[in-house]
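During the first year of the project, the team set up a workflow for recording each protein of interest as an amino acid sequence followed immediately by a discrete structure-token representation. This format lets reviewers and collaborators read both layers of information side by side without switching files. As required by the reporting guidelines, we include two representative entries from the current panel. The first entry is reproduced here exactly as it appears in our internal archive.
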Amino acid sequence: MKTKLTDAQQDLFEHLTSRTFYVVDTEYTSGPAKGGNHLISIAVVPVVAGRRNPKDDFYKEMNPGVPIHPRATTKNGFTDTFVKRKRRFGFYAKPIIAALGDPNAVFVAHTNSDIKVLRDELTRLDQARTPEEVQAWPAVASLPELPIIDTSTLPRLVALEGVGHRGSISLARLCELTAARNAKPHHALSDARATADALVELLAQIAKKASFYTLSNLLNAHDRGTTASPKGPAYITGRAASTTRSSHPHTSPDTRTRSTTPAPGMNCAPGWTWLRSASSFTVSGSTTKFGLPHRTTGQDSSTCS
């Protein structure tokens, strides 16, 4: 993590990263009309306690089962010859689901195209099998329902410097703004690692600005659905991309902490309290006032609900 945090900000960062984040990226090609896209490769990079460990990364390449479109080859370099002898998606379906095995995790991707193509593949797998096989292991139903973070739209929500009024930004631009390194763009594993590093910086920025006090609040404000029902853009289409922001309970630290009771939906982290008379919040007995820690007596406070 490149963002420097105070002790109190670090406490908030650790709370925001207390759940596992599965950062997913895919490379794919278009299939027959209305047939959806077909996976060529997929990467799952876990971020645990705000860090990623390359030893935990999951990456597989496969035969998409359809001719690779020339545009896909131009983008990611995969060719029909290269994937000819590789296994089909069905062989990797269970390992992919296992790589997303923590039911309390958060699914992270840059746009929702990755979860859509994964769901397309799982759906086709169910359709191609017998009812008995589906009953024994239903592919789509085995995908855990995880909340989604979309790193193409999250920078706008957290007011990342340099984003401006763009509703969504490319991965290349996100890497520029967060100083995340992408060694091999349009390679699923490299893109997933770069997205993971950018995510950590975005969460650090949230902690530094005290924009959100819990991950649940952030997810509610971000509102990108779940792996069962994803929302948001599938592609970055340029400056015409939507800048719509859904309504959410997020308020500025000043507005929030001057309230005598928590704003609707704003649940504090364990050990945090609302202060009635100060623009501050308490973490384990130490109060942060706009990122500057000072002590509190703990008087005249009300517990968050």
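The second entry, processed by the same pipeline in the following quarter, appears below.
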Amino acid sequence: MSTDTFKIRLPFNPRYGWHKSKKQPCANYRVYNAAGKRKLRTKYFSRGHELHSSESLAEFDQWRKRMIDGLTPHTGHIELEYTVEELCRSWLDYRRETSPDYGHDKRVAVVLEAYKNYKTNDFRSSIMLAIRDSMRRDAEVRGHRNRDTVNRYVRDAISIFAWGSMRDFVKAEVIASLREIKPLTRRESPGLRGRKTVYACEQTSVEQLIAVANPTLATMLTLQLETGMRPKELRLMQWEDIDQSGPLWVYVPKSHKNRHREESRREKNQRAIYLNRRAQEVLWHYHDSQRPDPLNRFLFTVRESSAFNLLDRHRSKYSLEVCEVLQRITRQKNRRFGTRALSVHPDVYTYAMAAEELGMKEETVRTWTKKRPWEMTLSKAFQNTPLKGSHEFTKDKYHHAINRLAKQAGLEGFSAYQIRHLKAEQLDQQFGREAAAAVLGHSNISTTAIYAKRNHELAREIQSRADQGGES
């Protein structure tokens, strides 16, 4: 059976007519494969319409336009009406190809799920406000979203319609109405909490996380502690972006927070992260001695981190003592159990004997023995870990991984950005505010002031000297 894909070609000119045997309007058209071979296809229209009736011709015309739209994906037709579901589906297809945060995009589309059958041209600001009020009430009850998150979801939902307006899915007056919506304020939503302020964590907290983390996450946390880089710059790290020629390695990330501003000013990439000796040693040791997939272009991948976790769970279940007992079971056929086997072969070690030594059921011992747990290695754990989504850590995946680590270490409300704040405070106290801005990659020193806390020790010392001067 041929697996060639047949598609229509432009100009697309189907022949409208009447199917005599089926007694309904239809259209005949040709499709072609890559080799130029063609086939004839038929599209049937509603049986209740007469040939050349206005209803049948309108149905034929809409079908023809949609077929042409299929050749130009992510583009609508000004004369057609689309539903919110069709708009979201086309937008998600577009974002799947272009967005690094596709998980958030899907959650934004779910916000519009209740109105999926609405016509996009009938959508107004009153409907979006109803969606926002529903999200606000839900967040007040469950406490899982703050005010800024609700505003972000509404803003991103409006951006879907803005995207559709540029591509003829939505009329311009719809997006004009939606853009009149102002962000939710504290006065309008007193029951919603505001954005959580991020403060620097303690050095000991990071050390606790590193102690319980797998090698992938432990290396990432150590690098962030040594350099103060942003989580995004850490997640997308690649060897090709690191210059190893000098005593200090220089990492120039392809993408960072202010890259779009540099591109708008036609400037080259100004962000440079310097790796000291400690960072170099940790990074090279992980890459050279611990990684199960050293050929991956990303230095840190979700699959490798999951493989380390799988191996840890395996070893916690099948301890060295258990594996030694299972390996002692006689491997020859028909010599594993039974009193006759013991009388004929006194050196035999049976399932029953292993179960008695381990204090578990004999069936469990048989099942575990078939799995041969003593042969599990990091390479096998990596092979048994399927790849889901992208290789690199996304924003959500890294956030969830750090959250799990924090719970395991007994830390509440910890985030990776707290390490960056900690580094900012250390640099500010040791070398001054300007040095901290240079290391953190801030073009404006006022941004660094947000990260670095007030130097209370300096204020106390100044006031003490003033008192001493007054006494003298």
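For the second entry, the following points were noted during internal review. The chain has five domains: 15-71, 84-178, 203-301, 319-375, 418-471. Residues 147-166 form the longest helix (20 residues). Both points are flagged for discussion at the upcoming steering committee meeting.
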